[in-house]
Amino acid sequence: MEIRKELEGKKPYELPRQEKRNYYSQIMQALTQKHYNHCKQYQNMLKIINFNLEEAHEPEEYPFLPVRLFKELELRSVPKTEIVKTMTSSGTTGQQVSKIYLDKQTSMNQSAALIRISADMLGSKRFPMLIIDTKSVIKDRKMFSARGAGILGFSMLGRDTTYALNEKMQLDFETVEAFLEKHQGKSILLFGFTYMIWEHFYKVLKSSSRKLDLSKGILLHGGGFKKLAAEAVDNETYKQCLKEVCGIERVCNYYGMVEQTGSIFMECECGRLHASNYSDIIIRNPKDFSVCAQGETGLIQLLSVLPDSYPGHSILSEDLGQIIGEDDCPCGRKGKTFRILGRIQKAEVRGCSDTYEKS
Amino acid sequence: MKNLDIDWLAGNTEIIVHPLQPYSDLVVYFLDELSGILRKQAIQEKLPDVQSLAFWCRKSHILKLKEKANNHNSLGRGLVFHITPSNVPVNFAFSFFFGLLSGNANIVRVPSKDFHQVNLICHAVKMLFEKPEYMTLKESNALIRYGHNQEITDSLSKKADMRVIWGGDGTIAQIRKSPLKAKAGEIVFADRFSLGILDSDAVLRTSEAECTQLARYFYNDTYLMDQNACSTPHLLLWLGKEKEAAQEKFWKAVFLEAQKYNLEPIKVVDKYTDLCIAAMKNSSGIKKITQWENLLYTIDMDMLPEDICTLRGRFGMFYQYALKNLQELAPFIQERVQTLLYYGLDAQELMNFVLNNHLQGIDRIVPFGNSLDMDVFWDGYDIVGQLSRNICFK
User: Fold this and answer.
1) ipTM beyond cut 0.90
2) Residue A184, SS3 per DSSP
3) Does A345 touch chain B if contact means CB atoms closer than 8 Å?
4) Are A94 and A152 in contact (CB under 8 A)?
5) Looking at the complex, does the CB of residue A73 fall below 8 Å from at least one CB of chain B?
6) Contact at 8 Å (CB) between A230 and A244?
7) Which end of chain B has less Cβ packing within 10 Å, N or C?
8) Dihedrals φ, ψ of B249, to 5°?
């Protein structure tokens, strides 16, 4: 089954610029219309800004919701009874979490898009899969969070799923060695969160006398480099360091958020993050939200064709990025390619309240 | 005090309580000398907030206040414990000055954030305290810094004769967990809401230069503190005939004036989120949203909500409403409303509006441009009066 009938028979990175623009112009109208009809708050906003729903617009002209809105409001476009899953963002202690409401269709579309994207980027076989995390993160319902949901979501990409860390977040050499022994000579898929891998896998391997041979491994990781910035670790350093400790050749970063699960942006062999058929990316100037030219830095807006059950088809993130190119990546895939330049900085806000704000 | 978690920035660790009369010569000289030091440094380092602080505590200004106060038969209450806001660098100094001017010994908890201005002021105070003539002030005052530590707050509160709490509702609730002596009193500065009122016809009559000046005043009232001070207006009310034309003229001037504002991306995202929440939650009430790029958002209301204090913006987002007449506003003024800024209207008329309507809110009626000006009269308190003890004699 294809996620959207217009994408029938297309590979996930096949749409050239004009075709994609035409499609996004229509699909964004359909989704905006749909959420307008079924989500009261969304309708309120569109009425106030006088948005014309009757005609199709350029993809850049559709309204976008700031990602933090999903923390502040409950936004749904289907009756409560049709919600099969509520995704929540991680968020540090004390912060509000995003609540994303999924119906059956949206949830299935998310899985389907993820499978297609990773099949194209990483290979269509279901590889034996090693998760660089602890099993307790999905066993313990209290800990079940974006981290657990992410692991469960991605684990369907592989088979013989094995967890590399024990419940104390220590690298379990015996288990990993047995896993590698069992699948000797075959490609294996590794998955984890960028920071966890660095902290609990890379650092341990680097200081240990025991070695693991992962030259046949493909590592998929996401979650951002925010915590690694303090150690001056960027994507390139990350790849290099991992290769040094376990011989791994293909390390693939992805960019995505719980507000748009499924239509994630994966890094190709040439080191660029790609928009697929299911998503697009627009960089906006913080000054006036005008669209930035290629190479200019601005706020990242994400479009996704998947959200049916909540108005998350066009979102303004809190990340800064740059477009590298469109339809011109040496890897041959079509679509926009981009780089992430990190999270927007917390401001030093003036004012006379908050003596007791957390320092 | 032996607590090791306290950082003593100036003054003594053992406080000697030795009440003085309000506006005593010793304090006036001390503040004037401090004013001289701070002014020089403020100019050198381009620190407008320190400069206005220095301007405030110069002798001629303090003597004017003294003249108005007329409290000869008073003495300071004893020891005042001040808890000052964490995100306004110079506010602690005002609180300290109020404590000195009313004749008290003071323990001032300065912001925990490492502001340059705070260090600079504390250092200047510390140097002056070393002069023999200010020995008694040194012995009776301390500027301190400590983190969130209830034990310390408990022990300082127990000693205090008056406690002054800045920082809003949350801080007040937190600090009130620490009991005071039975006889001790408290001055608290809770969360407040401020608004502005303009006469459209007066705005339309302004020359270009006058309108720019008005916009500059408004900028200083709002953007200068990220629209986050308690006296910063969030809601503008319009009187007069040609309201729409006046609004257009006013906001255009504000937009030009605000070009110098440092609009960081995080502020844009916060502000845009606020705008979307307002639009999504409000099915009626909001008539129109105007975005002047991301620098200035205005939200036109076609009716006021029961609680006007919910009409709050940040980083340059303002609500506005066209009043039929001043009287229409009366039912909406609740105790939370602090400052009413005005342009083109008669202050006495606004004062009569508050008095004749028996309102619980509006503590301050000042022209645009004065929103952040500190005064010994604040939030309805005569601060120096309340921090001193009046001795009745017949």
Assistant:
1) yes
2) coil
3) yes
4) no
5) yes
6) no
7) C
8) -65, -45
Alpha carbon dihedral A356, A358, B1, B4, in 10-degree steps, equals 180
Q: How far is B250 from chain A (nearest CA, A)?
A: 20
Residues 284-303 of A with CB under 8 A from B: 286-289, 299
The residues pairing with B7 across neighbouring beta strands, listed in sequence order, are B145
- The H or E element containing residue A17 is helix A17-38
**B71: phi then psi, degrees, rounded to nearest 5:** -120, 75
Q: Chain B contacts of A41, Cβ < 8 Å?
A: 280-281
Beta-carbon separation of B226 and A318 below 8 A: no
Whole-number Å distance between alpha carbons of B53 and B90: 7
pTM over 0.80: yes
Q: Which residues in chain B have Cβ-Cβ distances shorter than 8 Å to A319?
A: none
| Cβ within 8 Å, pair B280-A69 | yes
| Three-state secondary structure call for residue A275 | coil
Chain B residues in contact with A359 by the CB 8 A cut-off are 86, 112-113, 147-148
**DSSP letter assigned to residue A290:** P
Give the nearest partner residue to B266 out of A44, A346, A350, using CB atoms: A346
Pairing of strands B162-165, B79-83: parallel
- Residues of B whose CB is below 8 A from A343: none
What token pair was written down for A293?
Answer: 């030219």
Contact B21, B74 (CB under 8 A): yes
Q: Average pLDDT for consecutive 10-residue bins of chain B (394 residues)?
A: 78 94 97 98 92 96 92 93 89 97 97 90 97 97 94 96 94 96 96 97 98 97 91 97 97 97 95 95 85 97 94 96 97 97 98 98 97 93 96 92
- Rg of chain B over Cα atoms, rounded to whole angstroms, equals 22
pLDDT tens figures, A177-233: 999 999 999 999 999 999 999 999 999 999 999 889 999 999 999 988 888 888 889
3-state secondary structure of B109: strand
Which residues does chain B have within 8 Å of residue A347's beta carbon, measured at their own beta carbons? 226, 264, 266-267
